[in-house]
Design goal:
Strand content: under 5%
Order of helices and strands: HEEHHHH
Number of helices: 5
Number of strands: 2
Shape: extended
Helix content: 55-70%
Length: 138
Amino acid sequence: MSEPQAEEPSPTLLDRISGGVLVLAATALIAVLEAFYVALRLGSVRIPISVGIAVVCHPLLVWLMRAATGSTLAMLATFGVWLAVIVPLSFRRAEADLVITGDNWVSTVLMFGGSLLFVGSIGALLPARPRASASARR
């Protein structure tokens, strides 16, 4: 005979908030890494490690946020934090510092592809709404 399985306790509000904060911190860290790896080269050839990081991590971050908080709205926060880190690093500062340059294909793919990965991942995890029947639409 097998022993009855004990149910897992549901996460408390503090658990959800702390999980969400950890995912947002990981999102910010990953965005910084992506930004600084845009300029990576091997000789004269650009190595798109930042794009690879985005392909693996962006859907994972969205999924982790959904799992940690249980909220579909919180998934948008990962995209917002990523944008809040990436966009300022693509503008020249007063000291003439520029992290993400616009003169290469890796930065372009990171900006557009990274955004599309977030949006696609969020859309894939949204709950499906039932379609209204034809009689209800009339």
